[in-house]
Write the structure tokens for this entry.
Amino acid sequence: MSNSFRIILTGAPAAGKGTISKLIIKTFDFVHISPGDILRQNIRSNTKLGKEAKKFIDEGKLVPDKVVSDILKKRLLELKQKSIILDGYPRTLKQAETLKEWICVDAVLNLIVPHEEIIRRAKNRWIHLPSGRVYNIGFSEPKVPGKDDVTGEDLVQRDDDKPEVLKKRLQIYDKIMNPVLNFYAKQKLLTHFEPKCDETMWQKVEKFMMKLVCGKD
Ligand code: AMP
């Protein structure tokens, strides 16, 4: 059995990929790679890449494949032997094909959450931009409303979490991800996670990961 694993986490924007990723990292010693986080860091630092990406992100559009794939390749090379979670990549069939040339994927975990629920959650999501820490009104609130727990700095809402931008992102997501999911379904790598009322998303994912990583049911 290989010691390192490469998994892809898919799911519509704000479906909880960030939260599930954190739990996988903590429980199974994975490293998280999110092109969205890397792009936002570049926007904050006002780099050339950040300026280019901002135009697309603010409109709820995908950043061109070449830009995102270059970022990802660099990060994969840095993390060679580590177990990794890809969160937010691939988002197009072209990206999935490119990724296949670079690494062997062990599993694709697709989180299924209804659109109405996603829009409701995004309205309650607040971010500390410099660190990327995320708070959710209702279940992971900051100690002081509107302030980051660690630095005390202001929390903000992501421009692309606003309902009108998010609705557009959800439409684009469904359209472009179908071919990507089919690509992995054909390779028998795809598993859907849609929790019913008596089970949380994490309980389902944890069970699956136990089996993948430790060989346990
Ligand atoms: P996320 O935080 O993953 O929702 O990403 C935020 C934004 O970054 C997306 O709406 C896209 O504009 C851009 N982005 C992130 N990942 C990708 C990707 N794999 N391909 C193209 N654009 C991406």
Summary: The chain has a mean pLDDT of 90. The pocket of adenosine monophosphate is lined by residues 13, 34-36, 39, 56-57, 61-63, 68, 88-89, 91, 95, 160, 169 (CB under 6 Å). The first strand starts at residue 6 and ends at 11. The two ends are 16 Å apart (CA to CA).
